Amino acid sequence: MTTRPVAFFDVDETLISGKSMLLFRDWWDALHPRGDRPCALEGKDRSELNRAYYRRFAGVPVAELQSAGREWYGAYRSDPRAFVLPAVTALRRHRALGHLTVLVSGSLWAVLAPLAADLGADRILCASQRVDDDGRLTGEIVRPVIGPVKAEAAAVLMASAGAAPEDCFAYGDHESDLPLLRSVGTPVVVGDDPVLTQHALQDGWLRLPAETGALPLAAVG
């Protein structure tokens, strides 16, 4: 039996042109005004910022957040520059080859799920939000899926799937994706991040341009 290779894709500015967490935060806050200031995502430890972000949803029913994620994605999808087309094309190519396609992101499941369904991705690796006995979010997550944790999550999935890392692929746009890219046999740099570009030049990694555009109206399936 031949094991399917796995192709891992970062999401923000790799598959989509925007930062989904920030865009969804602004969309959510417009509908649910807060008395305090929205959490700033600059100048602090990325893991703590990621945790602080999720605390804004404490008390929200899971079903409500999932519905909001679908609504947000439907609006975002209509943006004529919403997607990074070379990376979307690459994901489609991996699907056509029978590879397992996986989104790896620090963003919310509620936001990532409609994107994965639209693009036909098989799995999502992201932060797990804790839920109380009443089906409401506590505001806490198990751990942020950013930086080295992306590589750890990818390694667990490859092991469980019986896939050899040297046969697998990873796509990323930011230096924080470096551990993920290093964890597979074929790393692909999307865009022109200087750190990743230097690694690509030194190590012969593949590169894709960050050309943006729209997807057809019909969902990809």
From TrEMBL:
GO molecular function: hydrolase activity
InterPro entries attached to this UniProt entry: HAD-like_SerB (IPR050582), HAD-like_sf (IPR036412), HAD_hydro_SerB1 (IPR006385), HAD_sf (IPR023214)
Superkingdom of origin organism: Bacteria
Keyword annotations: Hydrolase, Magnesium, Metal-binding
NCBIfam families noted in UniProt: HAD-SF-IB, HAD-SF-IB-hyp1
Family to which the UniProt record says this protein belongs: Belongs to the HAD-like hydrolase superfamily. SerB family.
Name of the protein in question: HAD family hydrolase
Source species taxonomy: Bacteria, Bacillati, Actinomycetota, Actinomycetes, Kitasatosporales
